[in-house]
Amino acid sequence: MKVVRIREVWSGQIIDLRYEVLRAGLPRETAMFDHDRDPSTRHFAAYLPGESGKLKDLGKLVCCATFTLGDWRGFKSFALRGMATDPEYQGKGIGRQLLTRAEIELSQPSINMLWCKARKSAIGFYEKLGWATCSAEFEIPTAGPHIEMFKQLPRVQKCDWFARTTLGGNCSNWTHCEDCTIGMSECNACGTVEGLTSH
Ligand SMILES: CC(C)(COP(=O)(O)OP(=O)(O)OC[C@H]1O[C@@H](n2cnc3c(N)ncnc32)[C@H](O)[C@@H]1OP(=O)(O)O)[C@@H](O)C(=O)NCCC(=O)NCCS
Asked: Which one, 32, 79, 80, 124, has least CB within 10 Å?
């Protein structure tokens, strides 16, 4: 499995990858989604580690996904869109790492569902990550056969430290340790590193 660094980003950082993987040959605007700039929309990106190996040093962008908040079949849900791994890095466990991490970050008491319009060719990927199909097959003219899929967001027990830093800390832009996910973190803005050795 390729080790990557998952970061929450803004849409401008991932549109090139989206375009290359999902919209090649179409006008570039098709890689920009309606709700990309909504405050409730969340974008995640996976980067290879940079040459220095330091937590803040990010290398090539290799995977991305976007989640837009809305109502789906009566559930307050996040819709997954723009799930894409650089072709050179597909099949190395990067999409799994990114989605697993996104689920942790997105988990909150009032929102308990993820859904997407999955390309038929990607159904197996989502099924491996615990998603289920829930519609008949339908065609999207620019992208071929699709099917709706969903997954219940896991209830994530976040440690006290996580709650303190993300909800009440002085820093606003925390990223987490790659090993324990919630036990140690570094602020992208000021470089402060904090953490617990166990939780
Ligand atoms: C689908 C996609 C996002 C998967 O990302 P990835 O980084 O290659 O996936 P991973 O390597 O993390 O795969 C996780 C598991 O799913 C499996 N898997 C990956 N893609 C699969 C596919 N298309 N069909 C069936 N299984 C798949 C992997 O074999 C792996 O299984 P394992 O854990 O048992 O080894 C990537 O292949 C991609 O960008 N494809 C083109 C664009 C696309 O179709 N996006 C989805 C639009 S809905």
From this structure: 124
> Of ligand 1's atoms, which has the minimum distance to the CA of residue 63?
7
Q: What is the pLDDT of residue 154?
A: 75
The protein residue whose alpha carbon is closest to atom 4 in ligand 1 is: 95
Quote the CATH superfamily of domain 5-156.
Answer: Gcn5-related N-acetyltransferase (GNAT) (3.40.630.30)
Strands (E), 4-152: 5-9, 42-49, 58-72, 75-85, 113-119, 132-133, 138-140, 144-152
Nearest CA-CA partner of 33 in 71, 65, 73: 65
- pLDDT tens by residue, 156-182: 655 444 444 443 344 444 444 444 444
CA of 94 to the centre of ligand 1 (A): 9
Instruction: For residue 3, name the pLDDT band (cuts at 50, 70, 90).
Output: confident
- pLDDT tens per residue across span 6-51: 899 999 999 999 999 999 999 999 999 999 999 999 999 999 988 8
The closest of 9, 25, 127 to 63, measured between CA atoms, is 9
User: In the chain, which segments carry CATH 3.40.630.30?
Assistant: 5-156
Question: What is the best residue among 60, 63, 125, 149 to mutate for testing ligand 1's pocket, by most ligand atoms within 8 Å of CB?
Answer: 125
